[in-house]
Amino acid sequence: MSPGPSRAATPAPARAPLRLRIGSLDWLVGSDEAEALSREILPGVPDLAPGPGVHVIKDNNVRAVFSLDAVANLPSLIVKRYKLPDASSRLKRLFVGTKALQEWRGSQAVLARGIPTCRAYALGEPRGGEARSGSSYVVLEKLEDTVPVVSLLRELLPLVETELRRSSPDRLGTIEDETRARVARDPLARKKRSRLLTLLAGLTRKILESGLHHKDFHTGNVLARILPGGDLRVWLVDLHSVQTRPLPGHRVRMLAKLFLDLESFTTEWERRRFLRDCFDIEALPYKRDLERLHVRVTRKTASLRARRQRSRTRRCVVRSSRYWSEETEAGLMYHLRAVPPARVEEALSTHAALLAGAGASGEVLKRSGSERTLVTRVRMAGSSPDERLDLCVKEHHPRGLMDRLRSLLSSRGRDEWMASSAFRVLGLPTPEGVALVERPRGGASFFVARFAEGSLELDAWLETAFSRSGEASDRRRRLTVLETTAQLLARLHRLSVYHNDLKARNVLVHPEDPTRLLLIDLAGVRPWRRVDRKRRLKNLAQLDTSIPYSVSRTDRLRFLVLYRETLRGTGSSDDSRLPLHDHARSVLRAGEGRVNYRREGARGR
DSSP labels for 420-445? Predict the structure, then answer.
């Protein structure tokens, strides 16, 4: 009998996942892979550790991500272990379920809407007594040969400095100069740049049109693959924060989250074009609705940027991927993960020996009469360059009743530790903070930072530089330092950072590269505080009265002009609208009563 007419094959409906109980976990597994997964992978998931075929991608106090090599009939897999670090996470689990469950549901919702993403193979949740406090697991498809879009952005998208100085001056310098120069000369990179932005806009449009909201939608959660023909393809990942019922303001928030990453690599015009590509222009009058949306997204981006900066700054006082905290014999210690606590305790012992006059490797840098602040340089030997440390240890003691009461809330060492973290987040130059140690009950606090080898204090450097013969090269170096200092001060004020002790001796200059400045003595720094006109004038007066007399009035006016030009157009200050001489007189009045000093010699810090 002859076969009947051929019919188009119809896809078989997806079968319901199977429920399995393996060890202390209840598993929900796709039926097609249930046998292989339950035999090869799932029994060992709770005990995953780096080893043959198992690679750690990420491990912090929130989750651990492992990559498993292909075994049996299974492809390469990604296993995510979601932890419960605090009580708030446990309380949240009671209402919305585990994060692994949210990722499983998010994967199903995204795939059902035709948005490219990785497939979820299995979901594991604790049962019994561990249901509220145990870790949850999700097994995902591994997308081979993919990289986060943020990595491609760093390689393919050059910074257009002229546009970025106007649209986002605070994000300059986030990409290496060599990468920017190489990409600017590479036509193929420019073509990939345009294609990548188009694909990213298309993915964003799909998410918006499908009625989904990704609460953590940024360039790190979009993976890209360069195909053999040179084209690109993108996937959406990290779906535990996907919501299927977004609120009206979620669209703006999701776009602002993405713009927060894009503003480092794109110009204002490109972001406007990106926003236009995310919507149907025929249904949206561009001159009205889209422009209004752009304004809302821009404002939300600024709000998210400030929130992210504060959140990342606070990571230095919690256990995170970069920092660690623990109780030690010396007191409560916060330190970099890369520096063991034993090395910090060794540095404190050497610091105490130096202050006692015992023979130790280092020197005493500052010892005030009241001994409120004691500063030493500690050299620590090691078997390798990474283990050899050159540190600056600052010991703060509260003096007086008000100082002791204040130290119960926040010690001066903690203020300096937090300011050091804020400077790192904001990209401001300062020696890297290594550790903070606080003694109990309002006792002494210790701030440990890297020592800036060979750097000179700004007043000492200027005293030496302005006393030399007037050669053209020396003149250019002096003007370069003044220009860099003025731009750094303007940047502090633009970022709403106030340094209440901004004297020239608290600015370090590298002798070989005068453009490399470092700010020190951060105990009085107040980040994210409104820097009003009175505080701006105070900082200008502090610098004016602390630099040597050898700096001429013309050079001081030139410094003020550079400061005003840097702030002009940023909306951070109205001082640039004042006549120059009126502004200069205001600075002089703010400096009345301050003692101008002249320092002899140059001491390294």
Answer: HHHHHHHT---PPEEEEEE-TTT--E
**Taking residues 342-365, what's their average pLDDT?**
88
Residue 333 β-bridge partners: 326, 437
Chain-centre distance for alpha carbon 360: 37
Residues 178 and 291 in one domain: yes
156-179 pLDDT tens trace = 654 433 333 333 434 434 433 444
Residues of the domain holding 514 = 456-590
Q: What is the pLDDT of residues 12-53, one digit of tens each?
A: 445 678 888 888 888 999 877 788 888 888 888 888 888 888
Round to whole Å and give the CA distance between 138 and 79: 6
Provide the sign of the torsion angle of the four alpha carbons 87, 335, 347, 443, taken in this order. Answer: negative
State which of 141, 162, 194 marks the end of a domain: 141
The count of structural domains within the chain is 4
Tens digit of pLDDT for each residue in 176-226? Answer: 344 444 445 555 566 777 788 889 999 999 998 898 999 999 988 999 988
- Can you read off the two tokens belonging to residue 522? 């951060």
Measured distance CA(140)–CA(107) in Å, rounded: 9
For residue 403, the Cα-to-chain-centroid distance in whole angstroms is 32
Q: Decide if pLDDT at 503 tops 80.
A: yes
Phi, psi of 149 (to 5 degrees): -60, -30
For residues 362 and 480, state if they share a domain: no
Indicate the residue among 450, 467, 492 that finishes a domain: 450
Is the pTM higher than 0.85? The answer reads no
| Token pair recorded at residue 105 | 């549901």
Are residues 347 and 292 part of one domain?
Answer: no
